[in-house]
Amino acid sequence: METRHDHRVAADWTAALERFTLETPSWGFGSGGTRFHTARQPGSARKVWERIADAAEVHQITGCAPSVAIHLPWDDVEDFSALRRFAEERGIRIGAVNPNLFQRDEYTLGSLAHPDARVRRRALDDVRHCVEAMHATGSTILSLWLADGTNFPGQDNFVQRKQRLEESLREIVAMLPAGGRLLLEYKFFEPAFYHTDIPDWGMALLLAGKLGPQAGVLVDMGHHPPGTNVPYIIAILLSEGKLGGFHLNSRHYADDDLTVGSLDPYQLYLVFREIVTFVRHLPAGAVPPQIAYMIDQTNALKPPFLAMVQAVVRAQELYAKALLVDEEALAEAQKAGDLVRAEEIVRDAFFTDVRPLLAEWRSSRGLPPDPLKAAFRYQEEIAARRG
Ligand code: PSV
Ligand code: MN
User: Fold this and answer.
1) How far apart are CA 75 and CA 94, in angstroms?
2) Which of 23, 26, 185 to mutate to test the pocket of ligand 1 (most atoms within 8 A of CB)?
3) Directed axis angle between helix 265-280 and helix 230-239, to 10°?
4) Can you give the pTM of this predicted structure?
5) What's the pLDDT tens digit per position in 362-387?
6) What is the separation of C-alpha 333 from the centre of its chain, rounded to a whole number of angstroms?
7) Cα–Cα dist 321/312, whole Å
8) Closest CA to 250 of 207, 185, 295, 283
9) How many CA atoms, within 13 angstroms, populate the side-chain half-sphere of residue 39?
10) CATH number of 6-386
11) Nearest CA residue ID for atom 5, ligand 1
12) How far, in Å, from the CA of 98 to the mean position of ligand 1?
C-alpha cells in the first residue's frame, strides 16, 4: 500500500490538493463568546476591514483559503465595491453572502416562514440587500440559515409554515444573479426548541429539489443530533447532485463551538473520503460537484486568527489523507466482502502522516512550511496594534 501511496503522491495527489480550497468566515475573526459572557480575545478583529485583512493573511500563509464569507448586516458597508477592492488588493475574494434573518425583534416568530406577510416581506428585503451585495462583490453564493421554528406546540401551523417558506424561497431563487447559487443550511435545534423549519438534510434536500438546479444543501458539521452518520448524508447528497457546501467546525455537545478537527478528525476525514471516492468513480467527462468548503466556528477562548489558521491547516490535512485512500484495493476488498482489509485500507490513509508532504507542497509554492508558526508572528502584531 505504501508504494501505491507514493505513486499517487507523484501523480494526482498534488493536483487534487490544489483544487481543495476553503473559505473563512468574517465573523470567525471577531471576539467569540457564550451567551453568558463575551471577552475580547487578543488581536480579534473589530471592524469588517480588519476581518477581511485577517482572512487575507490566512490565505497568505496557507495558500488554500482564497475567499471570505460575509454576514449581513454584521459586515455592512456603504460601498460593497470598495470592500471587493479591499479584498482583491490583498489577494482574496468575497465568497458566500449570509443574510442574518435572526436579529431583528420582528423575527422572533420567524422570518421567511413568519405568519405575518409583512414580516416575510421585510425578510425578503433583507435578502434582496444581500443579493445586491453579491452583485457588487462578485459573490456567487447566497448561504441561508434560518432561525425559524417554534418553541411550543400549537404556536403555529406546521403545514402553513412550510408553504410560506417555500413561497419565500422561490422568490429568493428568482432574485439570484445568473449563475448564482442558493445554499440551504439545516439545523435541528436552537434558537427554536420545539421544531425548526429546516431541521435536517431531508428537509433541506426536499426544498432544494423543488427550487431547482441553483439550490443546494449546506451541511454544517455541528448541526446534527449526536450519533448521526454524517458521511452517509454526504454520500446521498452527492448522489443526488445536491451537496452545495459545508460549514466546517467541531463540536462536543452542540453547534459550531470548536476548532475544526478538535474532537472528531476521523469523522471529517470520512466525510472527505466520501467526496474523494465519489469523484474518483465519476464516469469520464462527468462534471465534478461544485462544493463550497467553508469554515463556521466560533472562537470563544482562542485568539480567533490562530484558531482559523489551525482550522484551515487541519481541514487541508484531513482532505490530503482522504486523497491517499487506495481506491482500487478498497474496491477489491469490498467486492470480496473482506471487511477487515477494507477497514484497514481506510484507516491506513488516515494514519499516514501527511505533514511532511504538505510542508513540501507549501515550500514549492513559496509558502511557509509551517503556517501556524508564521501565524504567531502576525498574531503578535495584531495583538499589539489592536490592543
Ligand atoms: C447557525 O448556528 C450558524 O451555523 C449559521 O451558519 C449562521 O449563519 C452562523 O451559525 C452564525 O454564527
Ligand atoms: Mn453554520
Assistant:
1) 11
2) 185
3) 20
4) 0.96
5) 999 999 999 999 999 999 999 999 97
6) 33
7) 14
8) 295
9) 6
10) 3.20.20.150
11) 145
12) 9
